[in-house]
Design goal:
The protein has nine helices and 13 strands. It is α/β, with parallel strands linked by helices. The strands form four sheets. A five-stranded mixed sheet has the order 4-3-5-13-6, with helices on both faces. Strands 8-12-7-11 form a four-stranded mixed sheet, covered by helices on one side.
Length: 292
């Protein structure tokens, strides 16, 4: 029994006329009759009552028709699911991101991808850059949003967003009412910073900016997440240099000031395994590259 036999049967059951059924199937009537007889022989029961003037389904034919129609619907669904999966429109996608990405480019990316591929289940993980690299190596995430640079040949990465650095000050700070803050004026301030291992590129840039201003920052407290750093600033533990998008984190007790002179740009990069072949991941990468 082949799939075409079932399709021939369903068409004839719908038309109850060999001539019309043959026309719909784009075959001659004798081959259709022969195929139906072969099917009945293989099944071991008659599907149709035939007379010179009419064709009717047998009782067994009625039951068989219902089951075959379910099979064909399931087959069509299987084809559709396979096509969607091959286009990256179905499946699972695990995404890692540094906390600051949630305040700039990430919401736009997730919203656009949801609209383009609603059948993909997203699993989101807020992780530091070093954690994302480890999770990518072990396959726990598929794509990451990190602070570059990344010096591993097993990964591909592309900068998708750039922004300036700004100063986060307690609102009670003497410089809180100034439009710009000269970095040199903070030389004696306690700084809140994250450990270098978490994002070496961003850490080194912050240290370099301070050194260019003539001092090395005195780190009074370390914190892993940007939100925590800002909260510690609000608690008057110290000051911090943070990405400009952190202004979108509305935290009572903190004011943000531009740095004078203007700071160089810091970036967020999308990263993935260079050997990746998953259609879902490829679809995600294409959508993100289209956005930027």
């Amino acid at each position: 029994m082949e799939l075409r036999h079932l399709r021939y049967f369903v068409t004839l059951a719908e038309e109850l006329h060999f001539g019309r059924a043959a026309e719909r199937l784009h075959i001659a009537q004798p081959p259709l009759s022969q195929q139906i007889r072969q099917l009945e022989k293989e099944l071991g029961f008659e599907l149709f009552h035939r007379t010179k003037r009419s064709v009717h389904l047998t009782e067994a034919g009625v039951v068989f028709l219902d089951e075959v129609q379910q099979i064909l619907r399931q087959l069509q669904q299987a084809i559709q699911v396979g096509q969607q999966t091959s286009r990256g429109e179905l499946g699972e996608l695990a995404i890692g991101f540094v906390s600051s990405a949630a305040y700039n480019i990430l919401p736009t990316i997730l919203r656009t991808f949801r609209n383009c591929a609603p059948g993909v289940n997203l699993e989101l993980h807020e992780l530091t850059t070093d954690q994302q690299l480890e999770w990518l190596r072990t396959g726990r995430i598929d794509v990451g949003f990190v602070r570059p640079p990344v010096e591993e040949n097993t990964f591909s990465w592309e900068i998708i967003f750039q922004e300036s650095l700004i100063i986060a000050l307690p609102e009670s700070h003497l410089l809180a009412n100034q439009s710009y803050v000269c970095l040199r004026s903070l030389a004696n301030e306690p700084f809140i910073l994250f450990p270098r291992i978490l994002a070496p590129g961003l850490y080194d840039l912050i240290i370099s900016l301070c050194q260019q201003a003539g001092f090395s920052p005195s780190v009074s407290q370390q914190a892993i997440q940007m939100q925590t750093i800002v909260s510690l600033v609000a608690a008057e533990i110290g000051v911090a240099i943070v990405p400009a998008s952190l202004q979108n984190l509305q935290r009572t007790g903190v004011v943000y000031k531009n740095i004078e002179p203007v700071s160089p740009k810091v970036a967020i990069a999308m990263i993935w395994r260079s050997s990746e072949t998953s259609p879902t991941i490829q679809r995600f990468l294409e959508i993100v590259k289209h956005i930027i």
